[in-house]
Amino acid sequence: MPWSTRTPMDLRIEFMNRLARKEKLTDLCREYGISRKTGDKFRKRFEELGVAGLEDQSRAPKVIPHKTSAALIELVVAERKQHPTWGPKKIKDVLERRLGHKLPSVSSVGTMLKKHGLVTARKPRARYKATGSMLRTALEPNDIWCIDYKGQFLLGDRSYCYPLTITDQVSRFILGCEGMAAISDEAARETCEEVFRVYGLPSVMRSDNGVTFDCRHRSRVRVCARVQTGYMGGVSDRAHGWRF
């Protein structure tokens, strides 16, 4: 046989039954672990409402001074029905100018319209599903080199410097860093040839699709026919392998 459980409602009914048998209210309150004020409250509610008075009652306030009046809600709803394309902000501005006093916030006006079924929920946007790049991963030094013109900066003589950097993707070793007066195809090729003579040839030279490195254009000359080129879109410096 399962253990019997006693709910707060059972204890309150038992409390009232014992009180009806002329037991003292103070002693009962001490035994049940409640204050004299709470015991007296339940006694009065039991006398007025019976067993229903022992149920937990709503703690919501009976009077809300700042509650929106029914007349104002009807006015907002009527304005929306007359102008179906107006939103809460527009309705609030129009009614404030017409009535000459402030109305509840825009969000409150929107809640009124929503409660009366005058707001159609927007369909959720389809989230973009990111896909991984098709770029190969470097497995060892000299497998993939990254080349790029980094951000230009102003020199003391008010001229700009355009640094061309070449780095190994695995080791992060900076193979070349040349400051140039302008972005130049010829200067970039000369820098690459010098780096190739010192460090050899990589398997892949990775760059963005800027016109300087884009070998798909006839005007661009590939620095070495034996080096494969790999292009990437607008990516961060970390994807290029730069670390300063």
In short:
The protein has 244 residues and is an alpha/beta fold.
How would you describe the overall organization of this protein?
The protein is α/β, with parallel strands linked by helices and 244 residues long. It folds into 3 domains: 8-54; 70-115; 144-240, 2-Layer Sandwich (Nucleotidyltransferase, domain 5). The chain contains 8 helices and 6 strands; from the N terminus they run ααααααββββαββα. Strand 3 (160-168) and strand 4 (174-180) form a beta hairpin. Helix 2 packs across helix 3 (36-49) and helix 5 crosses helix 6 (106-115). It starts with 7 loop residues before the first helix and ends with a helix.
Series of secondary-structure elements, N-terminal to C-terminal = HHHHHHEEEEHEEH
Overall, the morphology is: elongated
Q: Using the CA coordinates, give the radius of gyration.
A: 40 Å
Mean pLDDT rating: 83
The main sheet comes to: 6 strands, mixed
CATH superfamily of the largest domain: Ribonuclease H-like superfamily/Ribonuclease H
Mind telling me which CATH architecture of the largest domain this is? 2-Layer Sandwich
* Tally of separate domains: 3
The proportion of residues forming helix, as a percent range, comes to: 25-40%
Question: Given the structure, what is the number of helices?
Answer: 8
Terminal CA distance reads: 76 Å
Segments where pLDDT lies below 50 for 5+ residues? Answer: 218-226, 234-244
| Beta-strand content bin | 5-15%
**CATH first level of the largest domain: which class?**
Alpha Beta
Q: Which structural class do you get from the secondary structure elements?
A: alpha/beta
At the fold tier of CATH, the topology name of the largest domain is: Nucleotidyltransferase, domain 5
According to DSSP, the number of beta strands is 6
